[in-house]
Amino acid sequence: MSAAAPAISMAARIKDIAHINGVRSNQLVGYGLVVGLKGTGDKSNTIFTNQSLANMLEKMGVRVDPTKTKVNNIAAVIVTADLPAFGKVGNRIDASVSSIGDAKSLEGGVLLLTPLRGADGEVYAMAQGPMVVGGYLASGTGATVQKNHPTVGRIPNGVTIEREISYDDFSSDLVVISLKNPDFTNARRVAEKINETFRDAARPKDGGTIDVKTPDDLKSNPVKFISIIENLEIKPSSLARIVVDEKTGTVVIGEDLVISTVAVSHGNISVQIKEEEKVSQPLPFGRGETVVTPDTRMRVEEEKGRWVVMKEGITLKELVSALNASGVSTRDVITIIQTIKAAGALHAELDVI
Question: What is the number of structural domains in the chain?
Fold first, then answer.
């Protein structure tokens, strides 16, 4: 008696590969001050920090000369946040705080009330509160210990939304779906899947956009209509691609790549150079000169390459097995893949980052 293995679904929801056009987050930015630092703030030669402090104190009825102000427990920062779609007044979101002066650490600091503006210059939120810094800085007279970046912090739920962004597109009879990665095949499949549920409602406009007409019985409930569309599943078509990061030696190979029949041989060459200086020194009280003679020794070793035949139609698993059988390192795999691509036998995009 044998049990049937469960089928593995390769489908993806439309909401995972696309989004409703116009529904997105908006970036907010503001300039503020962090106070309460333990001597790790901006130095006195940071002019804009002292000027900002003087302006803030003047609004509170205290006049100071910014050129004579010397404090090191305050830092000028840039505050950023993402205003989510349909964010309502009073909702709270997170903020990121980054030092723009010469502060050493923002650990233990508190951000003062900072207005956050959008691209149109309008204030959409206010940020304030104590920060969480994912690092630390400890220094002494002769040594310094640092972990991560103590000049960047985060304020969980430290931003209060003060202004909403209206979305009027849902009152129309047309919903536009935009693919995150434009592809003609995926656009066709999305339209066909929607038409299976809502007859003749979807029409692909191009490789990245699908126009969907709202049915008459759902015009009064667009949220339900969009929810149904988002949860429809299709089998997405992916582009055959290999991504190579030469800095870290990372190789990521996609599933749909195709390789023509090719034979690969790779051999390593190692060069060892050893340099020494031989010193000939005269006897004491002698009148001779010290002579330094360089001595260079070089040795070159070349490993014997092994031929590996990769047949046409090889799968991803077979490719990995063939490369492992060659006994090559990840760096060598990068070179082999680039060479196969140059020979025209690799039918996939090769991205080197």
Answer: 3
Residue 123, pLDDT above cutoff 60: yes
Residue 153 neighbours by CB distance under 10 Å:
26
CB 321 within 8 A of CB 234: no
Looking at the fold, whether 275 and 297 belong to one and the same domain comes out as yes
- Residue 315 sits at the vertex; the CA angle it makes with 313 and 321, to the nearest 5 degrees, is 125
Matching residue, tokens 């004491």? 284
Give the tens place of pLDDT for each residue, 289-302. 777 777 666 665 55
Residue 265 token pair: 């041989």
Answer yes or no: do 38 and 154 share one domain: yes
175 and 157 belong to one structural domain: no
Question: Using 50, 70 and 90 to split pLDDT, how confident is the model at 274?
Answer: low
Whether 202 and 211 have beta carbons less than 8 Å apart is answered as yes
The residues facing 266 across adjacent strands are 306
131-156 residue pLDDT tens = 988 776 766 655 666 667 789 999 99
User: Residue 274 phi/psi, 5° resolution?
Assistant: -125, 125
pTM to 2 decimal places: 0.67
Among candidate residues 143, 161, 179, the one where a domain is terminated: 161
Structural domain boundaries, residue 32: 26-161
Question: What is the Cα 160 distance to its own chain's centre?
Answer: 26
pLDDT at 6: 42
Does residue 14 sit within a domain? no
